[in-house]
């Protein structure tokens, strides 16, 4: 079997046909996002799809069957296809990846490329962490100092914060509203929903630097990593300011789900989270928050909870009637180091190998919306570093959330090495090789903090 993620069923007779690019598509009843792809000597290629997303995923499968060269910017002409039948549909409705563009800004063209990589893996949610202590990446026309002041910092910690090292250069950037509308439309064409997140009441130092009256105390955009104790005030003027900010966000992002953070706010402030969540509901949206929001008091029933501190908070959220996305740090934080190899660059967190990600099985799988992998970018300061951290572990995660649960690790590793890594090569993805980092992927002497 050469498809990745692995389909529900696959049959092949070992023969091939020439394929010149033409095929028939028929809409049929079936599972959401599902498809049937048939390649026969008599009829060539036929696709039956239950909806537009199913047709899109059938085209992705056909691209995979066409060989790695089909993933190049200029694909080849006629190709040989195996005579086969593929029947497929996803296991989970939410198959997500979170990308932190606040700690290190990812230029628009690189973000669009990342959307393409999610589409290749049939992931359908891009969660954008747009604001944090270290940067504000959303253009606010109503409060322009947010991006003008909060969008850059004079320096950055380089390596683990305990080392005291710094990069010695400014960092910044933000997405204009037109940029973000373009990203949303581009993703929608690939059946990917973009979930924006503005983090409150903690992780807000970039906003406080722009408008000091918002914070419990003042200070500049943070140049360090970790948890900043400064949080937003929970007074009415600050709440009104953020209602205004979220209203502006909603003008750009039409999707139903909108993130409000709620995590790692020292001392917490449930009133702020509750009021912002209610505001989003009044605007016809669904709040999405990290699992600390469960401690904020009664939340709107439509709130989606991202369970990152293990899976127990997610189980509690389910018991309270909330939809849940599982994203436990010990399983799917892809910024964590990939092995105990001494050349792993800036080794932080627990060792989370490719095999560890593949073995992850979401708790309460029959009750949750799905799962997502998270990429925090404190130590991922370029697209090359992002590629190294994400792949091929994100490929393994894609199979976890798409494919049936009866997975075969050895078969997956063979399929990955023989068929899928050549596709990533054709796409120009600078992934981590299975046997360890290449010399230029290591960062000798830059300290991490492995656990």
UniProtKB/TrEMBL annotation:
Domain Beta-hexosaminidase bacterial type N-terminal, first and last residues per copy: 29-88
Keywords: Glycosidase, Hydrolase
Species of origin: Saccharothrix xinjiangensis
Compositional bias (Basic and acidic residues): 149-163
Region Disordered, annotated ranges: 149-172
Family stated for the protein in its record: Belongs to the glycosyl hydrolase 20 family.
InterPro entries according to UniProt: Beta_hexosaminidase_sua/sub, GH, Glyco_hydro_20_cat, Hex-like_dom2, HEX_bac_N
Enzyme Commission code: 3.2.1.52
Domain Glycoside hydrolase family 20 catalytic: residue ranges: 92-266, 271-404
Protein name: beta-N-acetylhexosaminidase
Enzyme category, top tier: hydrolase
Catalytic activity: Hydrolysis of terminal non-reducing N-acetyl-D-hexosamine residues in N-acetyl-beta-D-hexosaminides
CDD domains for this protein: GH20_chitobiase-like (cd06563)
Domain of life: Bacteria
């Amino acid at each position: 079997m050469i498809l990745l993620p692995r389909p529900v069923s696959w049959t092949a007779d070992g023969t091939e046909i020439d394929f010149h690019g033409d095929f028939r598509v028929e809409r049929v009843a079936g599972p959401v996002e599902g498809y049937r792809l048939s390649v026969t000597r008599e009829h060539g290629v036929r696709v039956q799809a239950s909806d537009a997303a199913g047709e899109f995923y059938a085209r992705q499968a056909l691209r995979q069957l066409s060989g790695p060269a089909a993933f190049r910017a200029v694909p080849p002409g006629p190709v040989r296809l195996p005579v086969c039948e593929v029947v497929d549909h996803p296991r989970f409705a939410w198959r997500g990846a979170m990308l932190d563009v606040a700690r290190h800004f990812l230029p628009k063209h690189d973000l669009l490329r990342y959307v393409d990589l999610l589409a290749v893996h049939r992931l359908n949610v891009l969660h954008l962490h747009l604001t944090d202590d270290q940067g504000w990446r959303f253009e606010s026309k109503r409060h322009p100092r947010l991006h003008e002041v909060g969008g850059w910092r004079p320096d950055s910690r380089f390596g683990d914060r305990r080392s005291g090292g710094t990069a010695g250069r400014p960092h910044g950037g933000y997405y204009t509203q037109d940029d973000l509308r373009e990203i949303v439309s581009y993703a929608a064409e690939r059946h990917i929903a973009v979930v924006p997140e503005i983090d409150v009441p903690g992780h807000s130092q970039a906003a406080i630097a722009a408008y000091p009256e918002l914070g419990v105390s003042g200070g500049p955009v943070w140049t360090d990593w970790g948890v900043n104790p400064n949080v937003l005030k929970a007074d009415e003027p600050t709440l009104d300011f953020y209602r205004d900010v979220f209203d502006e966000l909603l003008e750009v992002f039409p999707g139903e789900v909108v993130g409000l953070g709620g995590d790692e706010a020292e001392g917490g402030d449930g009133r702020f989270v509750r009021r912002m969540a209610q505001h989003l509901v009044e605007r016809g949206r669904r709040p999405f928050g990290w699992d600390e929001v469960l401690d904020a008091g009664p939340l709107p029933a439509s709130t989606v909870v991202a369970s990152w501190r293990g899976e127990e908070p997610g189980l509690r959220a389910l018991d309270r009637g909330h939809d849940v996305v599982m994203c436990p740090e010990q399983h799917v934080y892809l910024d964590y180091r990939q092995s105990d190899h001494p050349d792993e660059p800036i080794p932080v967190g627990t060792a989370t190998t490719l095999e560890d990600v593949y073995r992850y099985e979401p708790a309460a799988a029959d009750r949750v919306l799905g799962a997502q992998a998270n990429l925090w970018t404190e130590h991922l300061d370029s697209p090359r570093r992002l590629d190294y951290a994400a792949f091929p572990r994100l490929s393994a995660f894609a199979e976890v959330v798409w494919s049936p649960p009866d997975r075969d690790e050895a078969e997956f590793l063979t399929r990955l090495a023989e068929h899928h890594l050549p596709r990533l090569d054709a796409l120009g993805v600078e992934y981590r090789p299975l046997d360890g980092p290449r010399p230029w992927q290591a960062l000798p002497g830059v300290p991490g903090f492995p656990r």
